[in-house]
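Much of our argument rests on the idea that a fold can be written as discrete symbols. The record that follows shows the chain in one-letter code together with its fold in token form.
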Amino acid sequence: MITFLSGGTGTPKLVRGARRHLPDQSISVIVNTAEDLWISGNHLSPDIDTLLYLFSGQLNTDTWWGIQGDSFHTHEELKRLGVDEYIGIGDTDRALQIARGELLRQGHSLTEAIRMLSSTMGINARILPMTDEEVATLIRTDAGTLHFQEYWVKHRGNLPVKEVIRYAPTGPFASSEVIDAIERAELVIIGPSNPITSILPILECSGVIPALMDAFVIAVSPFIGDAPVSGPAAALMKARGLSPDSVSTFSLYRDFCNLFVQDIRDPVTVPGSLRYDTLMTDIGKSAALAEALIEAGKQAGEKR
């Protein structure tokens, strides 16, 4: 079994490639939930939903969020009625959010809700929320402290970032399912997701780092030079006092990272890193990178 740590769009692209080489039942994905929020009365979990739609064959891979061919009639009507729904939620996408919200209101944990929805959607992979507790990434700006979704979607990341704050009133603690997925994995892959908002929230869950230290971990940098492949990672790294590059990314993972991967175009040098083409512009390139990582893990395992 291979376990991925995932958030945003970078790691899901890698997971899509891994499906060319592994059956879905051999894949577990631990997913960032620090970008979740309740909106328009329903529960939005963007990073989880990307995986649900990927494994169920519905994902809009032009945007890497939402459902291919979805309509937005409800969203447009809400806007007409004066509701500030600043995230464009598709009609079929909204149905999933309603269903998850109902399960949570009935007392199910997020892990239980995702397991139930995965079963209904015919998904064989294990999609695991990083925690069942409330966590949020907040961005402090001159305009005030905003939820990450408001900063990134409503303001399009155009506000200077003063501080990245993790709001976690009760922990958070990783679920037992998350720890099990790490402990049972032959290989753990941290994909090229935003370190600050996608991966660090997972690592901050109690129990995750000790489990990773006993696993074999490959981490992929999302940077080429001082720029991320996509998203606001550069501004957020700087807000944490880190340079936006592969060196700083490796510094966040070095305690448990066995192999570190950089893009072949990256001018920054991390000693001992592997170099592959990490720009997964199509499924063929995603599959090629996934195959290289799986093979690197196998070769390292044979030497251990």
The two ends are 18 Å apart (CA to CA).
